[in-house]
Specification:
Blueprint (H helix, E strand, L loop, with lengths): L1 E4 L7 H15 L4 E4 L6 H9 L3 E3 L10 E4 L6 H9 L3 E4 L3 H15 L2 E6 L5 H7 L6 E4 L14 E6 L5 H14 L13 H14 L4 E5 L5 H12 L3 E5 L14 E6 L5 H12 L1
Parallel strand pairs: 1-11, 2-3, 2-4, 4-5, 6-7, 6-8, 9-10, 9-11
Bound molecules: iron/sulfur cluster.
Length: 278
């Protein structure tokens, strides 16, 4: 079996910063609570639980005056207000690239521009950005959602989640522009560089292998987009947390690509490589 290790892969800057912040809190002897998952990766969450980090779904579960970590995905202003009301001490791991989208949402709203936000309904990042101006943002996931956008607004702008499928998002924006030719877009695209280059690398590798393994969790948006990218390029794509989840047929391939999502630790890739080589 020929194995192609795809690069770039693994931790992006935002994930690394979030993990560093949590490690620093633990090193200082703090008892950190984390709202939702610090990053979307099962192995990482389990490791931090072992170290005493407490993950919560809502702030009501956090005792007043405790340390609360906001994940790389960011939170809404409403969540920040709740934290302040409970006198929680905030350790903010929101990725700067997600913060940029929050700032764009605030600026467009001030200008009276209606925002079309392309993202995933249940994702924390989408909830955080839409929380900046819920009355002024319409979240859409696919072309059929365009019907949900209120007509007759003065101006329209588009913002996106940072981890979307680059090609699909471009197609959806092209559809929007057929209706709103003057649709405003940020100067610098919201889909982040880390997401873009990982998708490009998978697409390139897909032309040379029969299947691609993506190490990452099912709820990791950027990992799921890598799986979609490989599949769209005609490649069999496996998204697994670790090599133990691979099906037996995996050893039958002659040429296979191996990569990981932006929140998956490299040692899981190396474990998988070793498994494939034996
Ligand atoms: S995927 Fe992009 S936006 Fe999300 S944490 Fe990483 S660098 Fe930041």
């Amino acid at each position: 079996m020929k194995i192609e290790l795809i690069t770039p892969r693994g931790f992006c800057r935002g994930v690394q910063n979030a993990l560093d912040l949590l490690d620093k809190a633990l090193a200082q002897g703090l008892q950190p609570y984390v709202l939702n998952e610090i990053v979307h990766n099962k192995t990482i969450i389990a490791a931090y639980q072992q170290k005493g980090v407490i993950f919560v779904k809502d702030l009501q579960s956090v005792p007043p005056h405790s340390y609360i970590v906001f994940s790389a995905h960011g939170v809404s202003p409403g969540t920040r207000s709740q934290a302040a009301a409970r006198k929680l001490k905030i350790l903010d791991a929101t990725c700067p690239l997600v913060k940029k989208v929050h700032q764009e949402a605030v600026a467009y709203t001030r200008q009276g521009t209606h925002i079309i936000y392309i993202g995933h309904q249940k994702h924390e990042e989408a909830a955080g950005v839409c929380g900046e101006a819920p009355q002024n943002i319409t979240l859409i996931e696919k072309a059929s959602d365009i019907a949900l956008i209120p007509r007759g607004q003065k101006q329209y702008a588009v913002l996106t989640q940072t981890t979307l499928n680059v090609k699909e998002t471009a197609r959806l924006i092209a559809e929007l522009k057929k209706i709103w030719p003057h649709l405003r877009e940020p100067d610098k695209k919201d889909i982040c560089h880390a997401t873009t280059v990982r998708q490009e690398a998978v697409q390139k590798a897909a032309a040379q292998v029969e299947a691609i393994i993506i190490i990452g969790s099912q709820n990791s948006s950027n990992s799921a987009r890598l799986q979609e990218t490989a599949a769209a390029a005609g490649c069999r794509a496996y998204l697994v947390d670790n090599y133990r989840e691979l099906p037996p047929e995996i050893k039958q391939y002659q040429r296979i690509g191996l990569t990981s999502g932006a929140s998956a630790p490299e040692y899981l890739v190396q474990e998988c490589l070793e498994f494939l080589q034996t």
